[in-house]
Design a protein that fits this description.
The complex is a heterodimer of chains A (143) and B (179).
Chain A (H helix, E strand, L loop, with lengths): L1 H12 L15 H11 L18 H15 L4 H12 L14 H26 L8 H6 L1
Chain B lengths: L1 H21 L21 E3 L7 E3 L8 E6 L4 H16 L4 E6 L3 H11 L5 E5 L3 H5 L7 E5 L5 E6 L4 H19 L1
Parallel strand pairs in B: 3-4, 4-5
Antiparallel strand pairs in B: 1-2, 3-6, 6-7
The chains are: A mainly alpha (143), B alpha/beta (179).
């Protein structure tokens, strides 16, 4: 029985192994690794929460083909990302580059961290300056 | 004082984000085109109706023109087709087609059956030119200025309301300057 369940389970998972990228792989494993890294960082514009590596939308296929072609032409990663941003905008990249529009996106976490630190320091300072035993205003009000 | 104002400001910013995020008119599929106010990408494709001829950007150079991305598999394209025919009939401006990732015989019979609003359609069978134009979903419509800049890009089917609201102000501005 256990075996049967295991077999059924494995059968049900078999679909996962169906390749999405049906294009010809690079012969050079280094190139192939580079290619896979690039396509896992490019958004499929048609299916916005997928990378073009995971998507079988035909647009994703076209973009993979285009990236493969650019790589064969000897373009660097930066040039390939430029090619995409020129045509589809910053949104095409999962790691948007720093520019006027995306600046807020990049610095916002820092701003939140600083704001949090500022509040924490203020609270700690205030508590340190209080007499021992009174650790906030409610206590003070009660006593 | 600050301890009352700071949370209020924080709340106001948060509410601002929610209002933007929950706006029912917000369409996440609509992305700003990086081509606005920049030179339109080159177009150089075989003519759909006669593959030995070519349709190129030179055809509409010096004219205010529309480049419309269409395909027979695209439902929105069928939806807007009637309106494109109307625009062509009124001769508002020349319309060029970019037949994107389509079957040629189907595209041809579409034009015979439904009418052909295009001065000419380029046949982009493998979607290469589509990528150059940043196309990610048909129908897409580009308004090209006389000097070849992209004035406006619309994603989705066109209709008279969208035309009046989004395209006409650009067209009037362009034509007003030259007169």
């Amino acid at each position: 029985m256990k075996r049967l369940i295991l077999a059924l389970f494995l059968c049900s998972m078999a679909g996962l192994s169906l390749a999405i990228d049906t294009g010809q792989a690079f012969e050079d494993p280094e190139m192939q690794a580079r290619y896979e890294k690039i396509i896992s960082e490019v958004r499929c514009l048609k299916c916005q929460n997928q990378t073009i590596k995971d998507s079988n939308a035909f647009l994703a296929g076209d973009l993979r083909r285009e990236i493969r072609r650019l790589m064969t032409d000897g373009k660097t990663d930066a040039e390939i990302f430029d090619f995409l941003v020129e045509r589809y905008g910053d949104f095409a990249l999962y790691r948007p580059r720093m520019s006027g529009v995306t600046l807020l996106l990049w610095i916002a976490p820092g701003i939140f961290l600083l704001a949090g630190a500022f509040v924490a320091v203020r609270v700690v300072r205030k508590r340190m300056s209080m007499p021992i035993g009174l650790d906030d205003e409610t206590d003070q009000a009660v006593s | 004082m600050l301890r009352y104002i700071a949370p209020l400001i924080f709340l106001a910013v948060l509410i601002g984000f929610f209002i933007k995020g929950l706006d029912p008119d917000r369409d996440l599929n609509k992305l700003p085109s990086p081509f606005i106010d920049k030179p339109a990408p080159a177009l150089d494709l075989p003519n759909l109706k006669n593959l030995t001829e070519r349709v190129t950007s030179a055809d509409y150079e010096g004219k205010l023109a529309l480049v419309n991305v269409w395909a027979t598999w695209c439902v929105g394209c069928r939806q807007e087709h009637g309106y494109l025919l109307e625009l062509a009939k009124e001769e508002v401006l020349p319309i060029y087609g970019l037949n994107w990732r389509d079957q040629r015989n189907e595209a041809l019979s579409w034009l015979t059956q439904l009418g052909d609003p295009y001065v000419a359609s380029g046949y982009d069978a493998d979607g290469r030119v589509g990528i150059d134009w940043g196309v990610y979903g048909a129908p897409e419509t580009f308004l090209i200025a006389e000097d070849g800049r992209v004035l406006y890009k619309h994603l989705g089917p066109l209709d008279s309301f969208i035309w009046e609201r989004d395209f006409m102000p650009h067209i009037r501005a362009e034509r007003g300057v030259e007169q």
